[in-house]
Design goal:
Protein name (chain A): tRNA uridine 5-carboxymethylaminomethyl modification enzyme MnmG
Number of strands of chain A: 22
Shape of chain B: globular
Strand order of the largest sheet of chain B: 3-4-5-6-2-1-7
Family (chain A): Belongs to the MnmG family.
Number of helices of chain B: 15
Oligomer: heterodimer
Function (chain A): NAD-binding protein involved in the addition of a carboxymethylaminomethyl (cmnm) group at the wobble position (U34) of certain tRNAs, forming tRNA-cmnm(5)s(2)U34.
Number of helices of chain A: 21
Largest sheet of chain B: 7 strands, mixed
Mean pLDDT of chain A: 94
Helix content of chain B: 40-55%
Strand content of chain B: 15-25%
Keywords (chain A): Cytoplasm, FAD, Flavoprotein, NAD, tRNA processing
Low-confidence stretches of chain B: 243-259, 275-288, 381-390
Strand content of chain A: 15-25%
Cofactor (chain A): FAD
Structural class of chain A: alpha+beta
Radius of gyration of chain B: 27 Å
Mean pLDDT of chain B: 77
Shape of chain A: globular
Chain lengths: 628, 458
Amino acid sequence: MTYTGGEFDVIVVGAGHAGVESALAAARMGCKTLMVTINLDMVAFMPCNPSIGGPAKGHVVREIDALGGEMGRNIDKTFIQMRMLNTGKGPAVHALRAQADKFSYQQTMKETMEKEPNLTMRQGMVEELIVEDGKCVGVLTKTGTRYMAKSIVLTTGTYLRGKIIMGELMYESGPNNQQPSVRLSEHLRELGFNLVRFKTGTPPRVHKDTIDFSKTEIQPGDDKPKFFSYETKGSSNEQLPCWLTYTSPETHQIINDNLHRAPMFSGLIEGTGPRYCPSIEDKVVRFSDKSKHQIFLEPEGKNTAEYYVQGLSTSLPEDVQLRMLRTIAGMEKVEIMRNGYAIEYDAMVPTQLWPTLETKLLPGLFTAGQINGTSGYEEAAGQGIMAGINAARKAQGREPVVLDRSQGYIGVLIDDLVTKGTNEPYRLLTSRAEYRLLLRHDNADLRLTPIGHEIGLISEERYTVFLDKKAKVEAEIERLRKAKVHPDQVNPMLQRLESAVISNGSDLLTILRRPEVTYSDIENIIPTDIQLDEEMKEQVEIQVKYAGYIEKQQAHVERLKKMERKKLPEDLVYDEVRGLAMEAKQKLSSIRPLSIGQASRISGVTPADISILLVYLEQFNRVAAARG
Amino acid sequence: MISDTIAAISTAVGEGGIAVIRVSGPEAVSEVSRLFRSGTPLSEAATHTVHYGFIVDPDTKEKLEEVLVTLMLAPRSFTTEDIVEISAHGGVVSVRRIMELLLKQRIRLAEPGEFTKRAFLNGRIDLSQAEGVIDLIRSKSDRAFSVAFKQVEGDLSRRIDQLRQTLIETLAHIEVNIDYPEHDVESLTSLFIQEKCGAVLEEVERLLKTSNQGKILREGITTAIVGRPNVGKSSLLNALSGQNRAIVTDIPGTTRDVIEEFITINNIPLKLLDTAGIRETLDVVEQIGVERSRTALNEADLILLVLNNGEQLDDEERRLMEQIQGRQSIVIMNKMDLPQKLEIEKVREFYKDELIVPMTVKEGEGVDRLEAAISSLFFEGKLESADLTYVSNVRHIALLHQAKRSLNDAVEAAQMMVPIDMIQIDVRLAWEQLGEIVGDTAQDSLIDQIFSQFCLGK
């Protein structure tokens, strides 16, 4: 028996980091939104490490915030440690990383969602999609409820045919022993989707009171924490330290002695695991010359004794896990609270998606997060907000929003997925971005807040603050450019900084470009009315100091944009394009790029193929124009 | 409008006739102007006019070629962009030299069929010809592709691969420092980057030098015969070139300052410099002769120093030996029929025995010994041109120049303590530029390198 449980604009299946951003974005854009999830206690659950951010990932959180998403605000409320990484390097790679109180992170996010007026939350297991006239129009749950909508977003994480593996033990399960979603996976195959099997893993959690911290090194947070959200102006959160220790030769011995019981090597695991997040057994085998590996002990929250053992992801059997843990300095008497495990799951081949994250096969169906072959909370959330935005735009009959590779790490992530696909769980790295210097942690708002405002996720109030910041930064740079100075106005300062003195007049902008001069050294040389806060000063300094490098990359971007603006028709029949090489025909037909730019990034498509496409496109357009 | 400026040799490659290089794009006029000396500056010239002048290397100020330049301004040109066509004397060598210079400017080598493609995209060619354009691109690309791969097979591509390996290891190291800041990999110092990039830079410069060696093989080993008047230079030249050969003379008003003559010794081409100067001997004012010798000396890959066995060394000759020390050089002890007055010990301070060739040029005595000395110098690898890894492809040379620039920028930035993630931009650029030579620019290989080189993960 089935019955109709309601009609919505947008349905989001899943409530992990992708699901919550999708649902919130759609609801806040004015769509009547339903979020269905297997277990409502698991909203925004962190099944692995208790941290958010770091290089590239932290950038994504800033971008989500600049677009009007929730992750940044939520972690700012619930962090138990905040650290700015890479401060010794250039501003583009400064990266904020927070340790989260896992429990309050979840609780706070759930509260936010519950208060969202357009959002309905419902516990239930979606087993099938409802398809009419080749379009996805709803979902069917295990209890027989049919929910109908104009767009549907699947964010099923690692639940699809999930399987937990630990030593010789293997059982069907979602993360942390949650119910897996088996029927939906079958159903997606029946609909014609191409799925792959991926694997990831998590380390054991141990009891704080059984750790001897005196044998480890303390890793405190920053004295003056910075925040992810542009809205957060301060915090009274108390910070907890993490602790650093190392594996020992004995640890490695135990692992080597038990490799025959490791599912990675015994053949029990069929899914492809990520190279960037190998299990400890993998590390010991592949890097056998390393005598020790770092282990970070991270609190999972304020009100729990559980500690996450970062660096020790494993699927070895329980008894081996305990024995190897006890060979680590400070952990001689440690007690395990939860075992480490590997988890296998089904994921979509992401080249089946348009850059909007809508599936090519089934209009109206969007997918986001780990189901698309990524791993990581931030990667999931970044896709989540974009899928939510585009699902809402589709429901409202508006044009989709696609970020390109020069606009954000989110653009890089999605373009990589839908253009190149991935043969392992995909993690963002700053090195995946061509324009790292433009995609900075500090300028996410300049890049994306105008878009967030335009689509209705950034309030007028916040937008006004943003415009004010932008105007002041520009005005100050202009002032510095025009601020002519005599040698005697700046030479004492330059001498103090051991910088070469000037003998002719100069301007403050030129002087600020010197590596040893900072904004605070020159800001008061000529008095000004422009009042800047710390964030604005930082912006002025970065924009002035790195102008040369920034301009170099900007020139590249201009070229990229030209290619991106040349649109390819969705229904172009590549087999009929004369002159294209066979490999190019196959790749182009399967990926169906939306622009010449995207086409040029497909592996196997050569510059000659691109030239031919350009000519074909011109021919196509002229014929179309002639027909009127 | 397509925004960059492209160039290609538009006539069939070969000797004879004239050759035309076509440059098209918004920078065509300004960039060619940097190389072209003429009565009316190109930037002020009217469209569809022809100009006589010289191609001059803007760095060395060397006059390379006498050319005619035709100007066709947008939109009244084949591509509808600004077009500059350079007509040069035929011959691969001169045309390639001009191309190399052009590609050092803000001009890139045109892709196969690109002029026609632009003509089409800019509406200059009508629709019925579109398929022809496609066929042209396809066939030219396929041919260029197979040729390009033939050219980078073997030693050159192996060397480029080694350089790229060094760069990618350095890049992976930089990336790990950025993406895994808390990981216990050794943190990267700017000194490390300087060392690695410096080493690659040196090798790129060495390869670029071999582009000159490639030239040597095509154009001959530039050889200067030097010595004081009447020592027998003229006779030596005649002995080497054979009496029957016509000698190009220095006709007043021609463009060349140095007269060249080609001879072949055991299949080694020698380009003899300033033969006119040698022939003039006593007739010319001493001053001019000295100056000519200097020029010849500076340009030469091989120096043949002729001494008189029957006379003692003079100050000028001692100075000369000191000056050319370390260069590829052979000394000829001429006039062995005279009683020996030459201080042979003094000469031995500068020359090894096998590089001292006794001759009596007038009698044709010892020519075989000289030929043997030159060819042993060549085949034993003492002349760098014996190294057969050389870069000859104009595109490769242009890419090597670009890589050199990027590496220079990286090294300079490292010296100035610029943050590593910015130095990375230039290192990566160099890696990509070198990759274009061997046809490999896959971005993913960097990620592969990171994870195979470092043990990472949570």
